[in-house]
Amino acid sequence: MPEQPKKNSILSVGPDRSGTFFRCATLAGLVLLSASPTKAQQVDSLVRAGEEARLSSDLESLVGAGEERLRARFLARQISFPPEQYVLIALKTERRLELWAPSPDGRPHLVHSYEILALSGGPGPKLREGDGQVPEGMYRLESLLPHSQYHLGLKLNFPNDFDWARAREEQRSEPGSDIFIHGGEFSTGCLAIGDRAVEELFALAVRSGMERARVLIAPYDLRDPPETRPAPPANPAWLAGLYEELRLTMMRYHEAEAIAPPADPTTP
């Protein structure tokens, strides 16, 4: 879990070019940029915080550097930036994080594959706080962590409704919390993808909007032929159903349906 920043650190983000608004919130010592439902709420939040709606110069520099590299990737794929929607697919066994976005014809294309430098646990869902597992399922981006010992972080909405429902059924009161995609090369329960990679995804979340992202986390590539995939564990009983739902969703983002990416226009 990323290190918590100082409690009194306030960072406000105003409207970006896509019209997305963010609000600043300090919760349990975490400075988070969260998706705001309305502009009025954003203005009210800024008035209460007494801050101007703009990126700090340090964060703006990081976002700008990441955006420049990411724009080159989108340009090479002939996809407009920022995209109207985008999908991140994390494959735990393959240690790969794929970024997909629609081309002008509406078909999803693989923009880039990032290496997952560190993750703990193995195939299988996260069931309890402290079990070291990375969650599996379908998630959204909940907030952004701009100041961390792991550089930058994107917080997932884990546990989501599905996770809470399974936890209640199994009388698990603490299914886990604070799951991030972040920088650095070390992680316990999160996905560490390195500083340069997280700068790109952070810039994407700011420019395009967190609400336009979907994050799929799978134990391994469920798009592979059945005979090449491991059988799902017998327990928990609901896991096979989750994997099938993940597989059906992931099949929309299959290499066979997309043009292979061109030579990488940026350094790794």
Predict the CATH topology of one domain: L,D-transpeptidase catalytic domain-like
Main beta sheet strand tally, sense and closure = 6 strands, mixed
**Helix count, per DSSP?**
5
Shape descriptor: globular
Instruction: Write the H/E string, N to C.
Output: EEHHEEEEEEHEEHEH
* CATH homologous superfamily title of one domain: L,D-transpeptidase catalytic domain-like
Helix content: 10-25%
What separation lies between the terminal Cα atoms? 25 Å
Total number of beta strands: 11
Unreliable stretches covering 5 or more consecutive residues: 3-31, 46-55
CATH class of one domain: Mainly Beta
Structural class: alpha+beta
Strand order of the largest sheet: 1-2-7-8-9-10
Give the averaged pLDDT, no decimals: 81
Which keywords apply here?
single chain; about 270 residues; alpha+beta; L,D-transpeptidase catalytic domain-like; 6-stranded mixed beta sheet; 5-stranded mixed beta sheet; 11 strands; globular
Structure description:
- By secondary structure, the chain is an alpha+beta fold.
- It has a domain at 78-257: Beta Barrel (L,D-transpeptidase catalytic domain-like).
- Helix content is 25%, strand content 23%.
- It has 5 helices and 11 strands, in the order E-E-H-H-E-E-E-E-E-E-H-E-E-H-E-H.
- The protein has helices at residues 39-49, 57-76, 161-169, 195-208, 239-250; strands at residues 22-27, 30-35, 86-91, 96-102, 108-115, 137-139, 141-148, 151-156, 180-182, 191-192, 213-218.
- The strands form 2 sheets. Strands 1-2-7-8-9-10 form a 6-stranded mixed sheet. Strands 5-4-3-11-6 form a 5-stranded mixed sheet, covered by helices on one side.
- A hairpin with a 5-residue loop joins strand 4 (96-102) and strand 5 (108-115).
- Helix 2 packs across helix 4.
- The longest helix is centred in the N-terminal third of the chain and has 20 residues, at 57-76.
- The two termini are 25 Å apart.
